[in-house]
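To the wet lab folks,

You asked to see what we're planning to order before we commit. Fair enough. Below is the target structure as tokens, and below that is the sequence we designed to fit it. If anything looks off to you, flag it before the synthesis order goes out.
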């Protein structure tokens, strides 16, 4: 008899037309002026209404440039305000977004483009040369290489800012099919080469809805983990779902990270073990007022008992660990201040079951 564990939480309703785009439209209508994303470096911001408008203009521009439903588009950038705009536009268009590491060189980027069967790439202008070289290696025309991050772009390449500036009208598109693949992240898995993971619009909506059902309300949430990683993709789905302002940092850098936590009085900070280590041990931490932190969330790898105790000693807060994987569109478990144990990863999220299976007997 199979051993199956079920979530202790009631199921969350997932509508038939489940897509995070619908939540964006709702917030743009109801709270359009509220900041959706704020750059933690420059303090530039985009409201929910602006994100929707920019994404709509970009959909129209990409359609005019020949990008169509089903095309795989590699998104090659560090965290920035334009990143979720591009992600959402590709979703609404029906294209498949395949996020890649901004640290890739041209051969590594080309490898992902081949594996994903990508027909276009949208790269931050800082990595335009890498994108051009990778496109040459894979036979992708320069007409299908776009840059983001600066209106002037790079010589000979289209920018995403150009079609947004033109404000092309968005012709009527068919409703999104929640069962269409919208995201193709690459997972290292346990063996062999990285593998593309097909995730549908419904799966990504559910990832936001299930976590949002258990997360308490907050004014801000920090996005310091790289957006190309499923954990950070999940974070901006949760913030869109719950109408929370996301503070975006391009990467982890000690000073800017600590300044953002201090400035926005962050109650919860979601990080990974190396950042937990930094918070527990680094003397720079004492130069900032981090007293608003009530809990740390950590995933991606387990934390040792000594590190958890070091955080508790320095901040007096728990470290809430969770377990997830790319194939699950994010996390599968949830910890809270009232339901957690050091070294454990919490309880199953709503709508989630876990089966214990013996590899020898297949039972």
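Sequence we intend to order:
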């Amino acid at each position: 008899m199979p051993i199956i564990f079920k979530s202790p939480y009631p199921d969350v309703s997932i509508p038939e037309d489940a897509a995070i785009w619908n939540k964006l439209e709702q917030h743009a209508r109801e709270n359009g002026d509220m900041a959706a994303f704020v750059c933690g470096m420059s303090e530039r911001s985009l409201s929910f209404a602006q994100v929707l408008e920019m994404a709509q203009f970009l959909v129209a521009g990409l359609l005019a440039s020949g990008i169509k439903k089903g095309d795989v588009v590699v998104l090659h950038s560090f965290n920035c305000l334009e990143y979720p705009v591009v992600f959402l536009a590709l979703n609404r268009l029906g294209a498949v977004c395949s996020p890649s590491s901004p640290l890739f060189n041209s051969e590594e980027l080309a490898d992902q483009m081949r594996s994903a069967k990508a027909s276009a790439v949208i790269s931050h202008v800082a990595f335009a040369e890498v994108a051009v070289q990778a496109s040459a290696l894979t036979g992708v025309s320069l007409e299908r290489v776009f840059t983001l991050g600066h209106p002037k772009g790079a010589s000979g390449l289209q920018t995403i800012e150009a079609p947004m500036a033109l404000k092309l009208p968005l012709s009527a598109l068919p409703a999104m099919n929640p069962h269409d693949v919208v995201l193709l992240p690459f997972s290292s898995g346990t063996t062999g080469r990285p593998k593309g993971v097909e995730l549908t619009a419904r799966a990504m909506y559910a990832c936001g809805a299930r976590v949002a059902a258990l997360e308490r309300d907050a004014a801000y949430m920090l996005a310091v983990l790289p957006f190309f990683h499923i954990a950070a993709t999940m974070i901006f789905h949760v913030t869109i779902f719950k109408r929370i302002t996301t503070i975006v940092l391009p990467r982890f850098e000690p000073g800017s990270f600590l300044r953002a936590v201090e400035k926005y009085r962050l109650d919860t900070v979601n990080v990974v073990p190396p950042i937990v280590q930094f918070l527990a041990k680094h003397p720079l931490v004492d130069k900032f007022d981090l007293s608003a932190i009530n809990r740390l969330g950590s995933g991606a790898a387990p934390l040792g008992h000594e590190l958890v105790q070091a955080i508790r000693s320095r901040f007096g807060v728990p470290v809430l660990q969770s377990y997830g994987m790319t194939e699950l569109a994010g996390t599968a478990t949830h910890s809270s201040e009232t339901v957690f144990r050091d070294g454990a990863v919490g309880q199953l999220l709503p709508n989630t079951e876990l089966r214990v299976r013996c590899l020898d007997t297949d039972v």
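Structural context that might help your review: The CA atoms of residues 333 and 348 lie 4 Å apart. The two ends are 7 Å apart (CA to CA).

Thanks,
Computational group
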